[in-house]
Amino acid sequence: MAEDSDLERTESASSRRLEQAREDGQVPQSRELAAFMVLLLSVSGFWTLGGWLEFHAAGIMRRGLSFGHEAAFDSRAMSNAFTTLSWDALLLAAPLFMLCIAAALATPFLLGAWVFSPKALSLDFTRLDPIKGLGRIFSIQGVGELVKAVLKALLIGAIVVWVVRHEQGSIFALLSQPIETGLVSFGHMLLFSALTLVAGVALIAAIDVPFQLWQYYSKLRMTKEELRQESKESEGDPQVKARIRSQQREMARKRMMTEVPKADVVVTNPTHYAVALKYDSKNMGAPQVVAKGMNLIAQRIRELAVENGVPLLEAPPLARALYRHSDIGDQIPSQLYTAVAEVMAYVYQLNQFVAGGTNMLPPQPPAMLPVPAGMDPGVPE
Fold first, then answer.
1. Helix extents (H) in the chain
2. How far apart are the first and last CA of the chain?
3. Which of 25, 29, 73, 201 sits most deeply, having the most CB atoms within 10 A of its CB?
């Protein structure tokens, strides 16, 4: 079953899965890259600070071998001198120590970022299980680490043998050289050997880093079911979200319907579209759309308008243009000002007629309202 589960992990890890792994202290790591960085900065430090180290090391050695007859038989004086020289030696080596520490701390940033996880430091007794420990040793990962260690040892050994053979003549020549010349030659051989070793470790790191990244992301791969479950947890169940959106639309529709009785006019298609307009000259710069709808919603808007005495005006091009280019709560587009102005003038005259009784003639609804080309979605441009 475990193998089947691993085979099913065909999906790349999600950002949430990667973040959880970081919180648990699981980040890409490469000991070979860390060894390369430490060795590289150490050799660079020796190369850069070689003269300064040689000068101060010679001074420490000179002071250590220079003492009087009385100091030789004074244990306290010898102890103080040894303590002083030890501190001087530590301070001399401090720059190299700092370079090694900086290399060790900077390596994680090359593979992503440095992370501190309290969970990784927590006490977990399952890690002390000897059976699981043996399982890790004889697992594919354990065998891979063993093969990598053997290959690394062979490569380093081959580099050492090659360097010794390459510098064989120079090594034997040291026996016949003066001490000063011999030290310089020996320093050059050490530098060449160190650079060759750095190149070998760099080759190992170049192979190990891609392998470690591949292994890290392979462990975090997910099944399709895990992705779906994570999506539900982070974004919510799609069915629940659809139901919430449906309820939100229903609530918005109910709020919209409460505005229809307050409208000044409802422009209709007459059956497919209905747009309710309201205008307050004191608070509005232009008429405002308070409700709109198609088909069944349009029918309900018309019914509410009739029930509450709101005038209905059949103007199909204008109704379609208002529905397409206006949102609820927005003022009408400026291109429709002229057409809507004629509608509002008609509504004003109609209200005057209703208020004046039968002594006045009813106003005629406006015909051929000026809707600009391209505003009416029912007419091709």
1. 2-8, 15-23, 31-64, 69-72, 75-110, 118-121, 130-137, 140-166, 168-173, 179-219, 224-235, 238-259, 295-307, 316-325, 337-356
2. 63
3. 201
Residue 103: other Cβ atoms inside 10 A: 21
CB 344 within 8 A of CB 279: yes
Q: What is the pTM of this model?
A: 0.50
212-243 pLDDT, tens digit per residue, is: 888 888 888 888 887 777 776 666 566 666 77
Side by side, the strands of the sheet bearing 288-294 are 288-294, 273-278, 265-268, 312-314
Which residue in 143, 124, 125, 147 sits closest to 134, CA to CA? 143
pLDDT tens-digit map of 141-184:
667 777 778 888 888 888 888 888 888 888 788 778 787 777 77
Which residues are CB-neighbours of 226 under 8 A, at least 6 positions away? 11
Instruction: Give the integer Cα–Cα distance in Å for 316 and 367.
Output: 11
> At 24, is the secondary structure helix, strand, or coil?
coil
